[in-house]
Design a protein that fits this description.
Layout (H helix, E strand, L loop, with lengths): L3 E5 L4 H17 L2 E8 L4 E6 L2 E6 H16 L6 E7 L2 H12 L3 E5 L5 H6 L2 H8 L3 E5 L6
InterPro entries: Rossmann-like_a/b/a_fold, Universal_stress_UspA, UspA
Protein name: Nucleotide-binding universal stress UspA family protein
Family: Belongs to the universal stress protein A family.
Length: about 140
């Protein structure tokens, strides 16, 4: 399988585990890994002193998370891209997979048990609405 594997990250340890699983799948399948971080709001703040101005936004923060994880997963043999995507996490992953023509979305199994299962999880939403195959990685503590 050549193509694109999308994985969502939010800076959490469980998301990093899902991203590591996605990296391993992409490497073994010869696919490109596309790391995505979602942002739901459009808060933007401008800071400045004199003529120097800095713009800080939720999109910028999400892109930093995606870039950081992508950089940590990159190997010479693996193409890794990253992006910030607007929307709730499940919607952002689904939209980014559709936009990029992904063959697979990798998500973690966080919140798939107990009360989280009743209230819903990102993995559940993605599995039911994805435009491609979905791989649910075991990311909870295995003890």
């Amino acid at each position: 399988m050549t193509g694109i594997i999308v994985v969502g990250v939010d800076g959490s340890e469980t998301a990093l585990r899902a991203a590591q699983t996605a990296r391993d799948l992409a490497a073994s399948l010869g696919a490109t890994l596309h790391v995505v971080s979602a942002f739901d709001s459009d808060r933007t703040e401008v800071f400045g002193s004199g003529s120097d101005k800095w713009i800080v936004s939720d999109a910028g923060d999400a892109e930093k998370v995606a870039r950081s994880v992508a950089d940590s997963l990159r190997t010479p043999a693996l193409k890794v891209t990253y992006a910030a995507a607007r929307g709730k996490p499940a919607e952002a992953l689904i939209d980014e997979a559709a936009r990029s023509g992904a063959q697979l979305i990798v998500v973690g199994n966080r919140r798939m048990q107990g009360l989280g299962r009743v209230l819903g999880s990102i993995a559940n939403s993605v599995a039911h609405n994805a435009p491609c195959d979905v791989y649910i990685a075991k990311t909870d503590a295995s003890e």
